[in-house]
Request: fold
Amino acid sequence: MSIAPSSSHGALHRFQELSHLDPDAAFLSVDGQILTRSSFLEQVAQAAGAYSRLGIGENDVVAICSPNRLEWCVAFWGAVAIGAIPAPLDPATGIWEMRQLLPILRPRLAVSTTAFRGGDPSDRLRQAMPGLALVTLDGIRPNALAWEDLLSDAPVLRLDRAVGSNDILLYACTSGTTGNPKILAVPHLGFLKSQEDMAAHLGWTKSDKVLLGMPLFHQGGFGMGLQALVAGSSAMYVQAFDPTSFLDHLASTRATVAQLSPTLGKLVLSVPGFVDRNLSCWRMAYFAGEVLPDDLAARFWQDLSLRVVNVVGSSETGTMLAWDSLTDRGHSASDLAELPFTSARILSETGDPIPDGEAGVLWISTDALLARYEGNPALTESVLIERDGRRWFCTGDLAKRLANGRLRFLGRAKRVVKRGPNLVHPEEVEAFLLGHPSIAAVAVGKEPNEIFGECLVAWIQPAPGKTLARSDVVEFCRDQISAYKIPDRMQFVDILPTDVGKIQHIRLRETGNKP
Reply:
C-alpha cells in the first residue's frame, strides 16, 4: 500500500503513518542494532518527555555530538517532537571551531559521546562553553547526566505537535568549501517535501534496505537516510566507514541500495574477494559528494549491472541535479539533468542570463532551500534572492547548460586555478587521476607560482600495496589530458584527510609528505 507524500504534516506524522501500517517493520539500524517503527516512536516520545522535564521547549537548541548510533536518532527526533531545534555536530569538531559555533547556536543542552578517534567530544564542548548542560551517551563525566538517567521515569509525550510553515527542522553546521563556519537553518516542511520527492523519484518502497556510507551528522547522510525512511524503506548505517566491513554489511543485510561517495565507491571495489560475496540483492549504487568519473560509474552500472544514480546537491539546497544510468547512459555522469521538483539557472557574476554552452554560476530553487544562515544576515542576503515568486540560491558552483538542456558541473568557482592563460577545474583533474589503477584517492589544489601566477599541486594516496612516482602519474596523463592540467607538484601521502568520504581540502597541507 502506498501513501501520498505528507509534506502538509511533519516528519514524525509520516513515521506514525508508517507505524500504523506495520509497527514491527525494521526502521533504523546502526551496526546491526535495529529499531522497529513502533519502538523508534516509543523511544522518541520518551526522549521528548525527558527534554520537557529539563525545561527544554520550542526553539531551544539541542546540540548532538556523536558518530552514528541509535541514540543519535532518538535524541534528534525527540527534540523535533517538542519544537526544539537539534544541531548535529561532527564529533571531530575542535575546541576552536566549537567556540565559533556555540555562541551562535546558544544550545540549552548538548548530547554527546565521550570517545571518538582518541578524543573526548564532551570535554571539548565543556571547554568551548563552560556550564553547558551535558548528557553523555557513553561514559560518566562530572556534572553530566547519563543518557539512561535522562530517560529514566521520563513522561511519555504524545507526538502530535503541529508543524508550522516557518518551523526549523535542524541547524546544519558546515565548514563550507572555504572552511568558514556556517550554520544553516533548514526548514522542516520544505526539507521533508524534497526528501519525499526524491524518494518517489528513485522508486524506493517498503522492500528496500538502504545502507548509507555517510554519517548522520552530515547533511547528506541524514537527508538520504530520511529519503529511505519516508518511503517506508529501512535506513541502515554503520558507526564508522571501513570498506571491508561495509561490503560485508551490504552482503549480510541483503541491502538493495548502497549510498556512497565516489571515493568510498572506489575503496569498496578494491576490497579483496569483492566478487566472492553474495550481493544478489544489491540493485542501486547511489552517489553523492564528489564528481563521479565516467569509468567508475561504468564499473557499477555496466560491470555490476546496478542502477547508478549520481546526485549533486548541497546542505543549503538538498538534491539539485542528477544522472541516472537507467535513462542517461548516453551522457557523461558529469552532464546532469534537472529533477522534476528542482529548477536551475546559469547566470553571470552580475546576475544576467548566460547563453547555452558558456560557463556561469549555478543558481538553484528547491523546496529544501535553507531559511537563512543563522546569525549571518549579510551572508544570507548575498546568496538568496526571490525572483518570479520563487526563492533562489547562489551555489557558487560553475556550470554550463548544454544544447540538450543538461547541465555540466564544472566545479567550485573558488577552486578554479588560473595557470597562466588557462583556467583549470581541479575536480576534472581529480576525476581523471582517479582512473589510475594504483591511485586510491586524490585531491588537487593550487599554490602561488612566480611564472604562472598559480600552479597545480596534487596530493595522491596510492592504493593498498601500490607505490607510485611522479613519472608514473605524468605518463598516465600524457596525451590524455592537456599538458597544463598535469599537476606541477605531487605529494604522495599515506592517507588523505576525509570527512564522510569527501576530501577535506582545508586540511591538506597538514598531510605529511612521502619522498
